[in-house]
Specification:
With 159 residues, the protein is an alpha+beta fold. The protein folds into two domains: 2-73, no CATH class; 81-138, Nucleic acid-binding proteins (OB fold (Dihydrolipoamide Acetyltransferase, E2P)). The chain has four helices and five strands. A hairpin with a 6-residue loop joins strand 1 (87-90) and strand 2. Helix 1 packs antiparallel against helix 2 (18-34) and helix 2 (18-34) packs antiparallel against helix 3 (47-73).
Amino acid sequence: MLAMLAFAVDVQVGVPRFWTGVGIVLFIIASWFLYEPIDGNDMRLGWITLVVGIVGVMLTYIVGMPSMVRTRFATPTIGREWMIGQTGVAVENIDPEGLVEVGNARWRARTNRATPVSVGDPIRVAAIDGITLEIEPLEGAARDYREHRTKHAPTELDA
């Protein structure tokens, strides 16, 4: 039970370190003394059974559990690129954070370049940071310098 408690702490920490070692040592000790001697001799478990069980638990907690925990609590970031450039509406005042509606779904949003947006104002998604959309007002937003260059006739200052 102490080995499983140590492994539980290890999973909460998220990185195999001290508690992994404590759990493995306690698991080895517990595995050795778990079973009564067979047929009156002092042999408890076959060494192959003991080694396979210990190596299996070690692999589970050193490789498997950290990967599983990262996967379980990670923010999915694939498949949202289509939202960049999409328009929507501010559901509440965004100064600098609030809610917007894009594509019939509500999203947490942060203003791009700290431009406040009022309720009902149209917005454009400029970027995505995890599950938070970085937005800008549809009208009056600061333009990217690359867009600015292609929208006007060249002057002496552009050279």
